[in-house]
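2024-03-11 09:14:02 DEBUG pipeline.ingest accepted 1 chain
2024-03-11 09:14:02 DEBUG pipeline.ingest length=337
2024-03-11 09:14:03 DEBUG pipeline.predict start
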Amino acid sequence: MNVWKLVQAGHLERSELPTPVNDSEELIRVRVKKVFLNNVDAALYHGRIKAKYPLIPGRFAVGNVSDETKHLLFPKGTRVLLHTFRPAPDTGTMKLSFDEDDYEVCGQTTDGYLSEFVLVPPSAMTPLPDRVSDEGALLAHLVALSRTCIDKLGVRRGQHVAVVGANLLGILVCRLLIYQQAAPILIDADPSNLEFAKKCGVYYALPVDAELMENIGNITGGRLVSGAVFVTSAVGNDRSLPFRICARGASVAMCGMAPTNLEFDLEPALKKQISIHCVWNCASQLESAINLLATHAVETANFEPVILDENMLEDFFENYRDEAEMSVKELHIVNMV
C-alpha cells in the first residue's frame, strides 16, 4: 500500500509498505477513501506547528471497512468517518508532567490518514448514513467544533452573536447559529470572504472598518453583542475585537483545532468581566454533527471540492509556505482510491 510521510519539515515522502494484516479482534481495517487537507496540514508540512517525525499527515478522512468483522455496526463495506481526536493510550503509569494531553490528534501528534489502509478500533470511527456525502462528512469535525462553541456560549434564540473570522470554520459556526435561531454577525478583514459567506446564507457580514461599531449597533438596536466566537485560524483579524464588541458579562469562545501562538490584550475583557472559553476538542459532538449534516441543518453545498492526486501533494503544500490562507470556498480533497 502507499503511505505518505513527513520525514521532516518540508519533505513529504511516499513509501510502499505491505498492506497491514489485521490479527486482532479489537481492530478493524479500513480502506481510506478521501482525505481533506487544510491550513493546519500546510502548517505542519512547513514546520510552523511542532511535530515528531516521521509523521503521516491527514486529520480528516472517510473510508470503508475492508474486511468482515464481529462488530455489528461495522460490517464489510460500511462507510465510516475516521476520528481526528483519540483518547491518549493509558500506559498504566503516572504522568511525568502536567503538560501532557489527554487526547492524541491524528495527523499532528500521532499518525494521520494519508495512507491507503489503516487499522483502528471501533471507538475511533463512526458509521455514516447515506444522506451524508463524503464531502459533508469531511467537515463533520468542524461542525462538531462549531456546536461545541455555541454550547459553551449558552446561545439563546434571538441573541446577536459575533463571529470574528470568515473562513470555513467561521461560516459553519454562523450556519449553525442560524439553525438555532440566533442572529450571527460575521466580521472579517477580507471582503471577499464576506461576499462568499453571504452566498452561504449569512445575512449580517461586516468588514472591519471605521463604521464597524455603528453597523453593529444598527443591527442590534444600539446594543453590543451577547457573545462572540473568535476563530483562531482566520488570518488578519484584530484579536481584541471580540472583547470590544461584547456587552458586559458576556462570553467569548476562542475556537481552533491547532496550537496557535496568539497574544491577546485582555484589558477590555477584564474591565467588562467577560468569560473566556477555549475550544479545540470536539470529540463529544461528532455524532450530533453527523445528524446535523444528515438533516441538512448545516448546508455545505456551496463549498467546492478541489480534487488532488498523489502527484499534486507537494505542490499543494508549497502554495501555502508563507501562511497564506486557503480560499474559503474550496475543499482540498485527496482521492485515495
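2024-03-11 09:14:41 DEBUG pipeline.report The chain has ten helices and 17 strands.
2024-03-11 09:14:41 DEBUG pipeline.predict end
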